[in-house]
Amino acid sequence: MVVTRTCIGCRARDEKPRLVRFVLSADGVLVQDPAAVLPGRGAYVHPSVACWQAAVKRRAFARALRRPVAVGEPPTGWGADPA
Ligand SMILES: [Zn+2]
């Protein structure tokens, strides 16, 4: 059975390897967790600028992580197209 997660940007379910996991570090900074090994609640998003911006607009990071979180620009190298 394939493990799926919901992208907090476009709300589509997708296979976990196609999404990028983010967690909050101890000092409240949003960090990528490519290996999915960091503890705590994770937020999953497609590596797409469109999904990132949708998540920012809907304050989906704060909701998914249950903490206030300052979100900046999408990570460099992400494509502009929806995943
Ligand atoms: Zn998405």
Structure, described:
Helix content is 18%, strand content 20%. The chain is built from 2 helices and 5 strands, in the order βββββαα. A hairpin with a 6-residue loop joins strand 1 and strand 2. The longest helix is centred in the middle third of the chain and has 9 residues, at 49-57. The mean pLDDT is 91. Bound molecules: zinc ion. Zinc ion (ZN) binds at residues 7, 9-10, 12, 46, 51, 83.
List cofactors, ions and other ligands: zinc ion
In DSSP terms (H or I, runs of 4 or more residues), the helix count works out at: 2
Radius of gyration: 12 Å
Task: Assign the CATH architecture.
Answer: 2-Layer Sandwich
**Strand content range:** 15-25%
Biggest beta sheet summary: 3 strands, antiparallel
Tally of separate domains? 1
Task: Assign a percent range to the helix content.
Answer: 10-25%
Low-confidence stretches: none
CATH-level-4 superfamily name: YlxR-like
Indicate the CATH class: Alpha Beta
